[in-house]
Amino acid sequence: MSDRYLVTGGARLVGEVFVDGAKNSVLKLMAAALLAEGRTVLTNAPQIADVPLMAKVLRGLGAEVEIDGDVVTIDVPAEPDFHADFDAVKQFRASVCVLGPLMARRRRAVVALPGGDAIGSRPLDMHQAGLRALGAQSTIEHGCVVASAETLTGAAIALEFPSVGATENILMAAVLADGVTTIDNAAREPEIIDLCEMLIQMGARIDGVGSPTLTVDGVTDLTPTRHHVVGDRIVAGTWGVAAAMTQGDIRVRGVDPDHLRLVLKKLEDAGADVERFDDGFRVVQEGRPVAVNTATLPYPGYPTDMQPMAIGLATVSEGMSMITENVFEARFRFVEEMVRLGADARTDGHHAVIRGVEKLSSAPVWSSDIRAGVGLVLAGLVADGVTEVHDVEHIDRGYPNFEEQLTALGGRIERVTDAPVD
Ligand code: UD1
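^ thats the input. predicted complex w/ uridine-diphosphate-N-acetylglucosamine below
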């Protein structure tokens, strides 16, 4: 059984929204708390479903976790357990980020592999190769990553692709390794910078933060800290696109506009007026947006997590857009749902070609992941009639207070929970 949204199209979104801390940061920062015995406090944590799930993983490892509004407090014992079992991790992939901290603290880790993912295959080969380079053995056994090491020794590691998760796991293992580790072709997403900043506050020695080469000089101990989670650029960018699609006017607060340079530039190319502030931005769209081409790439490229929104915008823009997906191969699956809403779109390998229409037409659609779900809601806002978006629990995983925020901006959305059938 799942919940669905009824989205009534036609409203122009106008007003102000406040964006909380980033999902893709807070989960890693929670895992990083394992690196130090004692109490770590995270503020500006988003109230999304994945935070309690991560709390469950950490509790399974012996930590005490308390969530009070936007504050997450994690008390880590002197010797955390090293086995994150399937029950704790099965619901979401980000749990894999306990691998690095467990190797750092315990020199052992057994982390069950999460299930399949709707956006494409998500192997862990680079995570494992990185740990091996630091001197660990790492295999997959009975559905778990099993890693162990006598000692972890700094090494020169070059990633084949700037993987966010591999960079984070290697970084968190390296901060307590003996000697110096370099990670070349490291991911440099703002969430990685946020993690580096917290690790440095804890006493880690990291150079090159924000660059493609991280140099980590291992230390013997880290101390717990208090850290403010960086604002969620993907949620912020979603509202920016929502303004452009609905020909609205939205002021977004709680995010560094520099983290959305390309996203905001693309909105300007589509005809929006974008104003940037220290704590956010404002997007005003007068008239129909015009088509723009977009290709996803690791940061500072256009985020793959914004690709469904870029497609949504293209479906109602004037002209033909080409959207190219370079990070997750299966992310275009949701385009079929957009076609159900009347989008003139077709995909070929990495590319989607979309000829914009004036208006979409309402239909029942299914969300397959967080971002696809939100992309479909945005499409429902520019469709005539009432669009039913099914499986909206995905959206709960990444967008705090989504219906409330959308309603406050003038959007018409209602959540329906079906009664169980006997
Ligand atoms: C993180 C984000 C996700 C975002 C993605 C890319 C979290 C919880 N999730 O996912 O929202 O879309 O970054 O910005 O932070 N790959 C390998 N081998 C590996 C690791 C990755 O081949 O060992 C491939 C993946 O299949 C994918 C690409 O590298 O094609 C990028 O993945 P990665 O950057 O690792 O994404 P995640 O950390 O899983």
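Residues 24, 27, 94, 121-127, 161, 163-166, 304-305, 327-328 surround uridine-diphosphate-N-acetylglucosamine (CB under 6 Å).
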